[in-house]
Amino acid sequence: MIFVGSVDDIPLGEAVRVEAAQVDAGVPIAVFNVDGELFAIDDTCTHQDASLADGWVEGCAVECPLHAACFDLRTGMPSGPPAKLPVRTHEVVVDDGFVYLRVSAPVEDAPAEVAA
Ligand code: FES
């Protein structure tokens, strides 16, 4: 598992970015705090190169800061264009006030492209 930090380091409605160097798969991951529930997805938008940790959290979705595609934090699925591909989701484990990630399978095993 990958150590993220203390639960207290992720404020309500905010996200932290776990840098690629910390992640075995070599991609950054964003961890979001939605009303005290934590969600982790690949940080890079599947449309272009934007950090979703810099996006806006609305309910259980994040809006990309570059072109406003929204991704469901529970499934990684985009709600519509311009993003067509989902981002990977990752399991978040909280133990004694600290946050860890179980990184999902590589992209090759991820769900197929979303129909437009
Ligand atoms: S980079 Fe995210 S919608 Fe374009």
TrEMBL record:
Keywords: 2Fe-2S, Dioxygenase, Iron, Iron-sulfur, Metal-binding, Oxidoreductase. One of its GO terms (molecular function) is dioxygenase activity. Transmembrane segments: none annotated. It holds the Pfam family Rieske. Residues 2-101 form the Rieske domain. NCBIfam families: PRK09965.1. This is Bifunctional 3-phenylpropionate/cinnamic acid dioxygenase ferredoxin subunit. It comes from Pseudonocardia adelaidensis.
